[in-house]
Amino acid sequence: MKPAALEPSDKALVPFVSVEHMMQLIHRIGVEEMMAGIALYIEQDFRRWELFDKTPRVASHSAEGVIELMPTSDGEVYGFKYVNGHPKNTSEGLQTVTAFGLLADVGTGYPVLLSEMTMLTALRTAATSAMVAKHLAPAGADTMAMIGNGAQSEFQSLAMKAICGIGNVRLYDTDAEATAKCAVNLAGHGLGVVTCSSPEDAIEGAQILTTCTADKQYATILTDNMVGSGVHINAIGGDCPGKTELAPGILRRSDIFVEYPPQTRIEGEIQQLDPDHEVTEFWQVLTGDAPGRTSDRQITLFDSVGFAIEDFSALRYVRDRLEDTGLYYALDLLADPDDPRDLFGMLMRAKP
Predict the structure, then answer these.
(1) pTM to 2 decimal places
(2) Which residues does UniProt assign to the signal peptide (predicted)?
(3) Which of 111, 139, 172, 321 is most open to solvent, judged by the fewest CB atoms within 10 Å of its CB?
(4) Would residue 173 show up in a list of annotated catalytic residues for this protein?
(5) What is the DSSP string of 264-290?
(6) 133-307: what CATH class?
(7) Yes or no: domain 4-119+309-349 corresponds to CATH 3.30.2310.20
């Protein structure tokens, strides 16, 4: 046991939410309920978009993937996420995406929350998709095509059910085992699930088309002739330079909505278009500064690459739900000497 003088003070301790804790929190709240709650927090923060520091994420690219830092602040709280994207990982038994994140008090610079974000990013990505679709998808949409049935597919499907009210999902993946996995996982969750043998089959009768594939390359998951009028496309697979999913012709026929143009023009589907191609920042739809869906025949496209404010919102949601749960470790993260000027003295007193 440490001597009392060496015990960390309350100021030294930061709540740390482990993967185990996060899963327990999700089950305590409910998967769909938690995604709906995160979506509300994201919408609240999008409505105060102009308060936030905004910058494209800092990315370190390699032949195998990318490692990124995603920072933001609303002037009172600072947040960042570390996240990677390595498509080859699944062949080695590893996750394509892993992440952790932090919130800190702007006034002192002291961290107030450290959390896993591999699980939380899956929830916030799906929550963002469904929050946007709630405002852009055609009225009465009840069917989604889920093209790409990897780690995000079940979350996307259940978020669209919880937030947009869809009742059916049509699944397709080039890997039939991924589709079978997704279908099994969605059984018993109140969705009608159809497995499909082609993307054309999957989008038949669907009003919402979600593409979420992992290959780090220019790809055409949806060709121009596959997409008719009156649908909402939720394109979330493209998230780095050189990685796309949609034919350029689809983009030119669509009204395109994005998170943060300086980042999306580098990483999103619109990297295929001229740098000045017109897009709408989605926060402006929420504040009434720009129109969303204006007709039944309109194709709306959410070119989503993920933005730091969404992670900030998700972390803020988790922090607000932690009190009295015990679902965190008090992590001895910060040195807190009795005299702030005497860090060396604190070190010497700890000498064994």
Answers:
(1) 0.94
(2) none
(3) 139
(4) no
(5) HHHHSGGGGS-TT---EEHHHHHHTSS
(6) alpha beta
(7) no
